[in-house]
């Protein structure tokens, strides 16, 4: 498939999913009356990683830093004062790729709110992630771009622990502590819960 065909395919996916899911979810901040219904995962599953520490628990202080895929440095401390969603994903995860448009749509819809979105790719090969990113850079508007890191980078450091299911996302409060952990796609009702936290 040529690069032009790939770009066309990504554009079609972004447009279709944003129209059917993401754009609607971007309106979630208007519904500040939603009640918290988040089911927190009690799983302690691990991946065959060298360090078998447990996944970062609710209430723990999160740490994340490194170099973004565009070469810019990133430190989670720079998001203090904002509610932050840290999403771990893998390029070969179909659900991860399918939910990116809704993430971007909500990020765009909440740009004037105290909210930040950070994605962390966990692929073993950074080049495959960069190739995918190059396609997205052509297809996705600049206003929908958010910090994106590769977990395998030499300067990368975080304390989120092993991730065994993709996508897995951590919602952090304004001080960088874990409020909730989402395993799998974030459904519309859960976006209402996130909106309530952002608008507090």
Automatic annotation (TrEMBL):
Q: Which Pfam families match?
A: AhpC-TSA
Q: Which InterPro entries match?
A: AhpC/TSA, Thioredoxin-like_sf, Thioredoxin_domain, Thioredoxin_ResA/DsbE_sf
Q: Which domain of life is it from?
A: Bacteria
Keyword terms: Oxidoreductase, Peroxidase, Signal
Every Thioredoxin domain range: 47-200
**Species for this entry:** Piscinibacterium candidicorallinum
- Report the GO molecular function annotations: thioredoxin-dependent peroxiredoxin activity
> According to the UniProt entry, what is the EC number of this protein?
1.11.1.24
- Name of the protein this chain belongs to: Peroxiredoxin family protein
**Record bears the keyword Signal:** yes
> What is the enzyme's main class?
oxidoreductase
Please list which residues make up the signal peptide: 1-26
The upper taxonomy is: Bacteria, Pseudomonadati, Pseudomonadota, Betaproteobacteria, Burkholderiales
UniProt keyword Oxidoreductase present: yes
